[in-house]
Fold this protein.
Amino acid sequence: MAFVVFLLATLLTLLAFVGERTSSTLDRLMVTPLQENEVVLGYALAFWIIGMIQAAFLLAVAVLVFNIMILGNVFLAFLVVALLAVVSQALGILLSSLAKREGQVIQFIPFIILPAFLAHRSDSKMVKAIFVCGSSDLCCGCLPRDYAQMMGSL
C-alpha cells in the first residue's frame, strides 16, 4: 500500500508539473501578480489534498476489501501513509525541475521505483522495525506479529 501511494503521488505530481510547463500554463501564471513561491505552494496544497484522499481511499480498500489487519491505531496508519504521500509529492515537485518534457519523466521512473523497492525488500533491522513493527503495540505496521517473529528478532 505504501509503495502504491509513493509511486502514484510522485509520478502524478511529476507529470502534472512537467505537463504544465510544456503547455506553457506556468508561463501564463507568471504573468499574474502571483509570485513563484505562491504558485508552487498552490500546486503543492492541491496535490497534498489529493494525496490525503488517495491515502484514505487506499487504506479503506486495504482494510475493507482485502481484509488487511492493521496492528495498532488505524488513524496513526492513515497519518503515516498521508505523510508518505506529502513527501512523495515534494519529491515529484523536486524532480519536475529537472525534466523539460514528459519523455524525460519516463527516464526518472527507475530512479524512483528501484530505491523504494529495495528499501521495502531490505533485510536490515531498521527497515524491519519501520515496516513490520512487530515489537510494539503502538505502531501501525500492516503485517501480523507471527510474520515479524518468523523474520527474526528486531
